[in-house]
Amino acid sequence: MKKRGRGRPRKQDAMESRELLLRAVGAIMREEGYTGLGVTKVSARAGVDKKMIYWYYQNFENLVKTYIKEKDFWTPVFKKVGKLRSPEKEVICEFLMKVFKEQFRYFLAEKEMQEFIHWQVSESSQMLKEVSEEREFQGAAIAKLTDTFFEGVDVNLRAVLSIVLGGIYYVTWHADKNGSSVCGIDINKARDREAFERTIGQIIGWAFDKAG
Fold first, then answer.
1. How much is the pTM?
2. What is the dihedral of CA 107, 19, 81, 114, to 10 degrees?
3. pLDDT tens, position by position, 109-139
4. Pick the CATH number of 11-67 from 1.20.1250.20, 1.10.10.60, 3.90.960.10, 3.40.50.300
């Protein structure tokens, strides 16, 4: 697509340019990691004048943030949580087991999200902090649904889920970056991958069983 000069872009062209810019962010994240991102590189990859980044997104950080929010696994999950009204313990347990197993499969398959989470734990920036805080705020609704099940019980479900999530990230990074195993588990192998996913469900199930 040709780069545009000055003047307000037409609606169809604007939609196409936005999509090209978002795709360029994803492509660079997959191929070079977050360190490869930059205004000039994204503009060149998209074939869109870099001035349009500021026209559509105000700044480069908002472009990246928009891409992350559209790609994030948790965005549709939070919408599903909003439809759960006072669910039974068994229902919410099954829901969480399913969600975290799906999150594992998604994170393993999506190189861009692997890079983004790596970026979050490697650098400090306002944009990354805002994305994380927004996700935490929305994610609090999940934990809130479970509070009554764990009152007076020596089990902290939030801690359990954070350990599960951190384990997913760590084991996936090892498998992707080094092709290596963690505690003898190599999720590049189907058998170990299935065992890891099964264990995610078991851990969450054990926590709910402990709640009585």
1. 0.86
2. 20
3. 999 999 999 998 898 889 889 988 988 888 8
4. 1.10.10.60
